[in-house]
Amino acid sequence: MVKDEDIKKILDILESSYPEAKCALDHINVFQLLVSVVLSAQTTDKAVNLVTPALFDKYPSPYELADADPDDVSQYIRRIGMYRTKAKNIVGLSRVLVDKFSGQVPDDYDSLVSLPGVGRKSANVVLSVGFGHQRIAVDTHVFRVSNRIGLTHEKDVLKTELSLMKRIPEERWSRTHHSLIFHGRQCCDARKPKCDVCPVEGYCEYVNGADNLLERRKK
Q1: How many whole angstroms from its chain centre is CA 78?
Q2: Is the separation of the CB atoms in 184 and 19 below 8 Å?
Q3: 3-class state of residue 29 by DSSP
Q4: Which residues have C-beta within 8 Å of that of residue 69, sequence separation ≥ 6?
Q5: H or E stretch including 61?
Q6: Active site residues
Q7: How far is the C-alpha of 95 from the C-alpha of 62, rounded, in Å?
Q8: Which contacts (CB < 8 Å, 24+ apart) does range 41-46 have?
Q9: Residue of 108, 57, 115 lying closest to 88 (CA atoms)
Q10: CA 59 to CA 26: how far, in whole Å?
């Protein structure tokens, strides 16, 4: 893996390369963020942003959405994947918010993952973006890029998250999450990574190989 002393250098480079890195889901409050995150599963943020304006205009708070028929809600989001299931989930989570949390999105992990459609990654995004907690939410970009660079070597999402939490200073977790996502979207593509223009090419195991990196460090 990348040496501990090189991690700060990599993070500094990524943050400098993507100063605009932030949550790409359009929202004006934590409730809209939560719904958007649930809708974004296996769908692009761009696609979600296209359907949420009309959805939130019709259902601006958990109270309106809790009273809605999922079939009616699905018509607003039918352009995204699994829209019927997602409609049921956002209606269901709104009902729980109204019944158990006085219409407020809770700011603790266990309460968030108890909501329909909310898993570990979604809860971490809400805690990070919505409440300012330091979290690393591992999506496909974070998983691919962190393992490809050599920040960690793990085979699943949970182990990747736990490993990154150990290797990266806690005060940088959320920022690192966004930087890795932007790097994955703009440079470190799954099929055709743009290694020739990569700002962290000199530290990347995918480009240099672990053995080559070790030799370069000895020089």
Answers
A1: 22
A2: no
A3: coil
A4: 91
A5: none
A6: 121, 139
A7: 7
A8: 41/82, 41/86, 41/117, 41/122, 42/81, 42/82, 43/80, 43/81, 43/82
A9: 115
A10: 15
Residues, the chain, total? 219
Q: What is the pLDDT of residues 14-66, one digit of tens each?
A: 999 999 999 999 999 999 999 999 999 999 999 999 999 999 999 999 999 99
Helices (H) and strands (E) in the chain, counts: 14, 0
Is residue 46 within 8 A of residue 37, CB to CB? The reply is: no
Give 158-211 pLDDT, tens digit per residue.
999 999 999 999 999 999 999 999 999 999 999 999 999 999 999 999 988 755
Measured between alpha carbons, how far is 122 from 136 in angstroms, rounded to an integer? 11
Quick one: tokens of 57? 């205009």
Residue pair 52/216 in contact (Cβ under 8 Å)? The answer is no
3-state secondary structure of 134: coil
Tell me if 176 sits within 8 A of 136, measured CB to CB: yes
Whole-model pTM: value is 0.90
Tokens of 167: 């290797």
Contact yes or no for 157/10 (Cβ under 8 A): no
